[in-house]
């Protein structure tokens, strides 16, 4: 760089840089400029320490200690007094770490995952209440529907203009008596709607020796069987969309339930809910196998893997099953090795059709 500075005055800087292989912009002397730090200037809008203390004393005073900042500010302003803006109140309280929830908050709730299993009909039921719109705007009917978990059979159903625990008890009383449910035999799974968590309904099931199971809050997948049948109902080709009234809804739902229980169910490998619930699987499986054998005898070339065998519906149906747990004992015991208490067990849906009129 010193050679560049000693070049003759007649030689341009750019030619000298080209000869030396330097960039011209890097050959100029650099002068560091030190900026003087400005002296601290007091902000004219800044509150004095006395004013800050006045605000602190005001928000912690007896009349205002349970009030929000906005309520305190509005009350003082309505009385003709003003210390600062709302944002200034918050700025001072934030610096003092006083901006937080003052009220007692309920601690976070941790709900166990419901696990319900059925190996035979009437071992587990699941139910829900779904809304049926009417031709009157913002007016709905309530369909109470109880399903058997293993067979998806509609055990009981009812339509009402109301949604309460008394009607749920009425429906379950008839269903339990109709199906001769013994104490300790059945688990009923439901979500956490008002009729399901009412004390009268819970005591009613306890009186019959029925175990209760509940979905976790805001987890619709904990009650998949009831949710699925409600969607099947509302997406049926004949679903009217809106019902003219109670009688119209009862007639349509009765026809749907009859067709539903006699229709092959994909989750049952083509068997009907009625056949599984009433124990006709063996007879139907024999009929199926005879048809397969006859077809195989006529067209063996169409079966490269050999003679076909008919399938049967699942022997175990569960809500939130654990991997590797295939029996009821294993399912309820789980990884902890301790059998769940009856009130904590949870179950699905299905059953027999019972229509009840409601007030």
Structure described in brief:
The protein has 359 residues and is an alpha/beta fold. The chain has helices spanning 2-5, 13-20, 49-59, 69-78, 86-95, 165-178, 194-197, 199-207, 224-234, 246-261, 273-277, 281-298, 328-333; strands spanning 116-118, 124-133, 140-148, 154-160, 187-190, 211-214, 317-319. The longest helix is centred in the C-terminal third of the chain and has 18 residues, at 281-298.
Q: What is the overall pLDDT average?
A: 86
Q: Give helix and strand order, one letter per element, not per position.
A: HHHHHEEEEHEHHEHHHHEH
Q: Got a strand count?
A: 7
- The CATH architecture term of the largest domain is 2-Layer Sandwich
Q: Number of helical runs?
A: 13
Query: What is the name of the CATH superfamily of the largest domain?
Result: Ribonuclease H-like superfamily/Ribonuclease H
Features of this protein?
about 350 residues, alpha/beta, Nucleotidyltransferase, domain 5, 2 domains, 5-stranded mixed sheet, 13 helices, flat, disordered C terminus
Describe the structure.
It is a single chain. The protein contains 13 helices and seven strands. With 359 residues, it is α/β, with parallel strands linked by helices. It has two domains: 49-95; 111-359, 2-Layer Sandwich (Nucleotidyltransferase, domain 5), CATH 3.30.420. The protein has a five-stranded mixed sheet with strand order 4-3-2-5-6, sandwiched between helices. The chain has a two-stranded antiparallel ribbon with strand order 1-7. Helix 6 (165-178) runs parallel beside helix 8 (199-207). The radius of gyration is 38 Å and the shape is flat. Mean pLDDT is 86; it is low at 334-359.
